[in-house]
Write a structure and sequence with these properties.
This protein has about 300 residues and is mainly alpha-helical. The chain has twelve helices and four strands, in the order ααααββαααααααββα. It has helices spanning about 45-50, 55-70, 75-85, 90-100, 125-135, 140-145, 170-185, 185-190, 195-210, 215-225, 235-245, 285-295; strands at about 105-110, 115-120, 265-270, 275. The protein has a two-stranded antiparallel sheet with strand order 1-2. A two-stranded antiparallel sheet has the order 3-4. Helix 7 packs across helix 9 (about 195-210).
């Protein structure tokens, strides 16, 4: 009971410190490189990634693979899981490691069609990027005044909304119908909650659609169909883009229909009691002709 096992380690160590790594220092044995310089089909990858002290082996290998891919290659979890034997769970964890240490970042962009997509960006030197993004020291008086505690930074001006089509007729009833349609969009998608200023900007564009014999249901369908699944940063900008880009052609010209013929009421002839149509009582056509011949 009193004997101690001095061969057992005092505690388990999770990772080897960088300055105590077994590959650091000079040893009589170990790895020997038999290298031939690459001239084609090679990728330059920094040791800060391949020898990263905190990344897992799977994350390091996945990071090297991603940096070797051409621009536009798919690096989502589903595509990577189809390429490698590791499952989606392990690949997702490795991607999170790379994102945590700055080797990957995801940004959302709006396509010309109005959809929001997520772009994955690979950074081969995240430390250099962090240094470039770091703000410089506020040496100038204006910078020191901006950094002074208690001083409120002025808000950036809001980017104006895209222009919308304008109707040829600005009848109040037409603009009111357009405003009601915009106010009703949030019942179909809660993300399309518009302010009064945004509604006033978009209403002429909707009126231009209604003016072209487009039904309210068709306008609503054009504004709410195929919305991006991600959150809408500024729904009014998306609606303004759709109103301008998808504006339908005006209806074909139609000549006005001829007015219907006038149908006079029935009258009774004062001479022969025959019924005839005329605007006022009097004689029928035959009696008027006989009277003219007699005269």
């Amino acid at each position: 009971m009193g004997n101690q096992n001095f061969s057992a380690p005092a505690r388990a160590q999770s990772r080897t410190a960088g300055n105590k790594h077994p590959n650091r220092g000079h040893h009589s044995g170990g790895l020997i490189h038999d290298n031939i310089r690459h001239t084609t089909r090679f990728t330059v990858i920094g040791n800060h990634l391949v020898q990263h002290p905190d990344l897992s082996l799977l994350a390091i290998g996945l990071g090297c693979h991603i940096q070797s891919l051409p621009k536009g290659a798919r690096v989502d979890i589903k595509s990577l899981a189809a390429r490698f034997p590791e499952g989606a769970t392990r690949i997702a964890a490795a991607l999170r490691e790379l994102e945590t240490h700055g080797y990957l970042r995801r940004e959302r962009e709006r396509t010309p069609g109005g959809r929001i997509v997520t772009r994955t960006i690979s950074c081969n030197q995240p430390a250099a990027r962090r240094h470039a993004d770091k703000p410089s020291c506020p040496d100038r008086p204006a910078a020191r005044a901006a950094a002074a505690p208690g001083r409120r930074t002025p808000a950036r001006p809001r980017k104006p909304l895209p222009a919308v089509p304008q109707p040829a007729c600005t009848a109040p009833s037409l603009l009111q119908a357009a405003t009601d349609l915009l106010a009703d969009l949030r019942r179909h998608d809660s993300r399309l909650f518009l302010s009064a200023r945004d509604t006033a900007h978009l209403a002429p564009g909707v009126a231009a659609w209604l003016e072209r014999d487009v039904s309210t249901a068709a306008v609503r369908r054009a504004l709410t169909a195929d919305l991006p699944p991600e959150g809408l940063h500024r729904p009014a900008a998306l609606l303004a883009h759709r109103l301008a880009e998808q504006l339908p052609l005006p209806p074909p010209f139609r000549e006005p229909a001829a007015p219907p013929p006038v149908r006079h009421p029935l009258q009774t002839c004062d001479a022969c009691d025959r019924a005839f149509r005329a605007p006022e009582p009097g004689r029928c056509r035959d009696c008027r002709r006989d009277a003219q011949e007699a005269a």
